[in-house]
Design a protein that fits this description.
mainly alpha, about 230 residues
Length: about 230
């Protein structure tokens, strides 16, 4: 009886650790990418670029952009760190540099009036609109978003972690990117009503709060990269 009770406690504890690791990786990925991707801010640009299309065509484009954005972010997160390492750049250095970039992006979002990955995109006008260019890149996923994804992908535990821990973090990161893709689709799908509901002040508040979280994540990534760098043999 007592043995079965302890076994149940161990199973519950293991399950909670698994959920905590997945939730932590999910929150890190989503909170790091959302302020830069910021589909709520990009939604009016999307609506302006697709204003000549029917509602059905606009919805189809929103779905394609979400899928393309998911593929770009996932590719940057998975392959980006190893491509840099292939060129002889150590991953801890990549983490430090990426952390500086993330912190700088967060600071710009927090202090400047008009700065984002969508800078320079026209709010209206007519141009040939494609699901990849310009709607996916650079309107939705630009260089800032991709650099954040690479930095998050390079954030690894020192040493050789167990396979279960790797699987949990990969699952959480994947869910985070899926959540970003869903926010892209929903923001673009309801772009015509979102700006009217939130208003300029609502979008401003959301961006500033997200920017502060992004700065904290950037500083934490810098510290992890520095800790890993000084631990390497010279």
């Amino acid at each position: 009886m007592r043995r079965s009770y302890f076994l149940r406690c161990r199973v519950v504890a293991a399950g909670s650790i698994t959920l905590n690791d997945i939730a932590g990786a999910f929150l890190l990925t989503f909170a790091g990418l959302f302020p830069i991707v910021n589909p709520i801010e990009a939604a009016p640009f999307f609506f302006g670029l697709t204003s000549g299309l029917s509602a059905a065509e606009r919805n189809a484009l929103a779905r394609k952009v979400a899928i393309n954005g998911f593929a770009l972010l996932l590719g940057s997160m998975v392959l980006g760190p190893y491509l840099l390492e292939f060129f002889g750049i150590r991953l801890p250095v990549v983490r430090i540099a990426g952390g500086v970039v993330v912190t700088a992006l967060g600071w710009k979002l927090l202090t400047q009036e008009d700065w984002s990955d969508h800078a320079g995109m026209p709010a209206g006008g007519r141009r040939k609109v494609g699901s990849f260019y310009p709607l996916t890149m650079p309107l939705t996923v630009g260089p800032g978003s991709m650099s954040v994804a690479i930095t998050i992908g390079s954030r690894k535990t020192p040493g050789i972690p167990p396979l279960t821990e790797i699987a949990q973090k990969m699952t959480g990161a994947l869910l985070g990117i899926i959540a970003i893709a869903l926010t892209i689709y929903l923001a673009y799908r309801f772009a015509s009503t979102m700006a009217r509901v939130l208003g300029e002040s609502g979008v401003e508040v959301l961006v500033r709060l997200s920017a502060f979280i992004l700065m904290c994540i950037g500083i934490e990534i810098i510290w992890n990269g520095y800790s890993a760098l000084i631990a390497l043999p010279h």
